[in-house]
Amino acid sequence: MAPWLQRVPFKAPSWTSKLKAPPTRVLLANLPTPLMPWSCPLLQDLSVRWSLKRDDLCGLELSGNKTRKLEFLLAEALDKGHDCVVTVGGLQSNHCRATAVAARMVNLESHLVLLVKDQMLEQDPGLEGNLLLSRLTDATLHLCAASTYRSLGGDLQAADRLNEEMAQQLRRQGKNPYVIPVGGTCPLGTWGYLSAVDELQEQLSPEDPVDHIVVAAGSGGTLAGLALALHLAGGKQQLHGVNIQHEPDVYRKLIASEAMGLGCDETLASAVAGEVQLLSGAGLGYAQSSQLELRCLAEVAKVSGVVLDHVYAGKALYHFCEYAKANPDAFRNSHILFWHTGGLFGLYSQAERLQSLPKRVSSFQPTQPQPKVGERENTGPEGLG
Ligand SMILES: *Cc1c(COP(=O)(O)O)cnc(C)c1O
């Protein structure tokens, strides 16, 4: 049996030899995640071919791109003897849910600072979507008004500050918290996506090269990891980061600073940041979906059986395709890999807005069978097993 939930020595890919690799990781994710062909119905006019890297399948309640980062972050928390973790996110944060689940698995308490609308500050936040899982796995929720976060600047630094103040409160209570930045984005967490590129390279075959890689960017760590890894590993694919949260400039700076945090010099770091194509995909704003985005997500699910979330992956795909349609020559006949980063549970909070899905519902009345005497006595639904 693999040493699940244990810390194991980390063997970094050879092309990272110039970086300072973390000593351990804790085995949480179901890796490698599948790389599969995808019958995505979009961009058919450009004759593109799609593949899907399914990081949504690297666990179930502990799933999505945050899992790869948490393997390194929680290893450090355990190595350094912390007894709980603190992190921050929106009310439906996938990152907070993944952190709560992963922390529980390795026997750490979790404290989640969740940003809520001001009028919800005094209410029970309920059990919708990700909250059900965070609360089932015994996370302590600390609700913070989104207006407070905005008044602190509403950026990654503001999130850091909330984290740090929460950690100080916990320290005063005698706890020893490990602080995880928003989205798990920091140089250590980024190792999750350096390893992911190593994993991808094993899966790609030279006869079937990928031309483009598309990924959603929220806190930006996933994109930064992919960008640096593709550069160092000599990947030929063009990386497209669809920013669903911040301005493109924020991501450019973040990619460079993550690279430097990992030990790259400034020249290399800015080269890496310059190689990424940043597309804006915020649409109506973070976690706000337009009808067109939702319709796109529904069409993709209907044709391919793959469900994308509305906050990240679904939005990223929609806005990437809009960009490709406006720049057809760059994409005609190409092979596009879409990185599915997870987020399914958040979609459950959108059931209401997806009510307009095509209805394939009717009542069904089977003709009554005549059971032979003595057979199938138990005819209630429980008899169906
Ligand atoms: C957090 C998240 C992202 C964005 O990843 P970052 O590393 O924060 O940029 C994308 N998709 C899903 C489903 C996520 O939960």
UniProtKB/TrEMBL annotation:
Swiss-Prot/TrEMBL cofactor(s): pyridoxal 5'-phosphate
Which GO molecular function annotations are given, in alphabetical order? Answer: D-cysteine desulfhydrase activity
The positions flagged as active site in the entry are 93 (nucleophile)
Sequence intervals crossing the membrane: none
State the Pfam families in the record.
PALP (PF00291)
Q: Which InterPro entries match?
A: ACCD_DCysDesulf (IPR027278), TrpB-like_PALP (IPR001926), TrpB-like_PALP_sf (IPR036052)
Domain Tryptophan synthase beta chain-like PALP, by residue range, is 28-342
Protein's name in the database: 1-aminocyclopropane-1-carboxylate deaminase
Record family assignment: Belongs to the ACC deaminase/D-cysteine desulfhydrase family.
**Membrane is among the record's keywords:** no
